[in-house]
Amino acid sequence: MPPTIRRFAIAWILIFCSVTVFFTLIFFYHHHEWRTLGLTGISDDAQNYVQSSDVDTHHAQSSHPAKVLIVSAFYPLSKSKHPIENYKAWLNRFLQNIESPVYFFTTPAMEGLIRGCRANHPIYINTTFERAFDVPPLHGLEGEYEKMQAKDREGFRHSPELYSVWNAKPYFLDEAVRNVNSLDPFAQNAPSLPTYNYGFWVDAGSFRQEHFYQRWPDAQRVQEVFEEGSQLTGTPQDELIFFPICTIPERGWKRWRESDGPVDFDFSEGSFFGGSPKAISWYAQTFYAQHDKYLANGIFVGKDQTVINAIMFLHANKFVSVWVGQPPYLLDPHPSLPPPSSPSPPLASDSDTSTAMTPLQRPRIYPPLSRIFLPLLSVPQTYCGPEWYHYEFFLASPSERSSMLALWGNIRDSRMRGAWWGRRGWNIASLPSSMRMEPTRKDSGGGDESVCPMKELMSIESLLKTQFGERWVPIRME
Ligand SMILES: *[C@@H]1O[C@H](CO)[C@@H](O)[C@H](O)[C@H]1NC(C)=O
After folding, report:
1. How far is the CA of 303 from the centre of ligand 1 (A)?
2. Residues 9-19 pLDDT 10s
3. Which residue windows does the record flag with biased composition (Pro residues) (predicted)?
4. Is the C-beta atom of 86 inside 6 A of ligand 1?
5. Residue 360 has what pLDDT?
């Protein structure tokens, strides 16, 4: 063979091999087991804040199940990010499907729309407030909020009106639970006075995709979560606030002081939170006290999530949470290690807590490479619902969870059929189990929990101490 042809052939073989290796890697990267086993970049000490999973040991089979109230509101913005049709679709997904009692604040003009979405499920619509600025804690703050917008690094896409809608949530939740517990708005249906044990704020737009949640959040599950939360934190159940998070703080945040102002990174999710009426009142009071203190010092408080972050740093022991990026506990290499927050750790002496407290790294759920190439190839991912809304799954009953698992299995399946190998007629049986299709079998346990495991309840205090060091305490302002 002449040398030019040989070189040409070798070059082609090399190109062929590297392309093959590349596609094989992409394919197997999305094989779930492989992904969770090695590539998430989790430190070995993940168990430090991932608590034991023996939820089953404290199933409260109480004869008086807790009553749970959902609180929400809709105040359309004059210049909104989304057209009103979107809101209607989201409101329908939420109000038509979720059967738990709802207390809803809105404008008189929107009352008809809300009632129309609700079908026959219990709802109490309160139209006392025309605008979010009319709620007592925000009354008369328009001028200050307008001035404040200049300090918002995202001021170009926010408005004082939007700040007011965000910052009214703690008031709405507290007020709704008080109203309902003091007078019975559902009296036509039930003669007895309902006393709600738990109230949760739910953003009106937080059910955007198809779902099977109905009796949500599940009262039994909520009770379990708060019992477990109390064990994790040592805080009484009726003083705990459940607040999902979307990331964990970088270690540098340990130098944060209260006087620096709100904690400005995506930590708490503003779309869902709650607890017992007592905890909700504490939270609303604390929120507005913090808000007023910062406002008086000329500090920007327009983004409620950053104010909440500050409150979570300052009162970490009051918060429990769930985080979709949490590493799977099954991979824990030291299952017997005591959690750092347990009141009397059986073996951790002072000297070995320091070694036990290696900070976590954020797992890279979607690394940049796949973010670039996946949309091009439409390779199916391990789809487990929208990550932000994992708490919906977390607080659902077992049967609704399994319906959701089946639904997600179908979504993965249809994505796979749209993918390049699907169109080429690959044999489904040869695919990894996590990619195989399941027929939609609602309520029949068709889903696969090993593909989409439910994350564990976390204590915010343990999480922050894992990141910042066991002796970390926030530096408060006078
Ligand atoms: C609506 O909410 C306000 C504020 O909480 C309350 O004062 C009022 O009584 C409520 N309206 C009704 C009709 O319950």
Report:
1. 26
2. 888 888 887 88
3. 335-346
4. no
5. 63
